[in-house]
Structure formats: C-alpha cells, structure tokens
Design a protein that fits this description.
The structure is a single chain. The protein is of the alpha/beta class. It is about 25% helix and about 30% strand. The protein contains five helices and eight strands; from the N terminus they run E-H-E-H-H-H-E-E-E-H-E-E-E. The strands form two sheets. A six-stranded mixed sheet has the order 3-4-5-6-8-7. The chain has a two-stranded antiparallel sheet with strand order 1-2. The chain is globular and about 45 Å long.
C-alpha cells in the first residue's frame, strides 16, 4: 500500500500489456519527504510539486470511486510524442480524462493530452477535466473538457 501502479491506457487491450505503467507513491507526505520537499517549497519551488499533487489527486479520486462505483477502471495515457493524461477513467468503453496542474494559470498545451484522448476514444469519450490551482470552472475547447479548481474534489 505504499505505491500504486497505474497501468497505461490504450484503446486496444493488446497494446495495454506492452505499455509502461506509471508509479504513484500513495502517501504524498512520504513522497515529499523522500524528495526533500517542505511545505514552504509549495511557494518557493512550485515546479517541483507537480508530481506530488498529481499523485495526491489520483489517490483522492480513486479513494472516492471505491465507494461510489466499483466498475470504474483507472489508467494513465501517454503517446509516442510525450502527450499525456494523468488519469484515465473507464467504465466499459466509456472514457473520461483528468489532467492535474499545480499552476493557477492555464495554457493551450495543458489540454492537448485530453484532446488526443478524446480523438482516440471518439464517441466513447465522455468528458475531460483539467484540475488546477485556480478559482473558476471554465470550458476548454469543444471536446466536453472543463477546467476546475482542485478544491472541487471535496465539494458536494
């Protein structure tokens, strides 16, 4: 229960077996200690915090999903060009994507992975979310993709 292997998503089940899984340290406090990061580094070295925030959000979403829908499956997506989606959620062929950013500013490139996932899934893509350190829920593009504050994970 210290690490979680997040398998690679591919729309062909055979290809999933040869893709590299992503490893998340389940305890973000332990991960921060191992990376020699402190709470002050959130403000002073924010660029080093992205992987911790990503792992924390992945853990939170998967924990919440355990008591809401046991049919959900979790993956990550990365293509040959390095475009990625931090968390891909599937139920059967239905697919959702979640990207996590430690920044309060968003850039066009931040949704490229979600757009590629949407294109690969076609009609099975249900929607995407860019979770960021901001305050507003905003539509992004035409692929049913939204930006939302990370804090929305804990709101009813």
């Amino acid at each position: 229960f210290l690490v979680r292997r997040l398998p690679a998503w591919h729309n062909s089940p055979g290809h999933r077996l040869i893709k590299t899984p992503k490893i998340h340290v389940c305890d973000s406090g332990l991960a921060a200690t191992l990376a020699d990061l402190t709470a002050a580094d959130w403000f002073e070295q924010r660029e080093r915090m992205g992987h911790l925030l990503e792992s924390f959000v992945v853990q939170q979403i998967m924990a919440q999903a355990e008591w809401t829908d046991s049919d959900l499956r979790f993956w990550h997506y990365r293509d040959k060009d390095g475009k990625e989606v931090d968390l891909v959620i599937t139920r059967g062929k239905k697919t959702w994507g979640i990207e996590v950013k430690a920044s309060s500013a968003m850039h066009r490139k931040d949704v490229r992975g979600l757009e590629l996932l949407a294109a690969r899934c076609g009609k099975h893509f249900q929607g995407g979310m860019l979770l960021y350190d901001g305050k507003d829920v905003l539509p992004l593009g035409t692929q049913n993709i939204l930006a939302a504050p990370i804090s929305k994970l804990w709101e009813l």
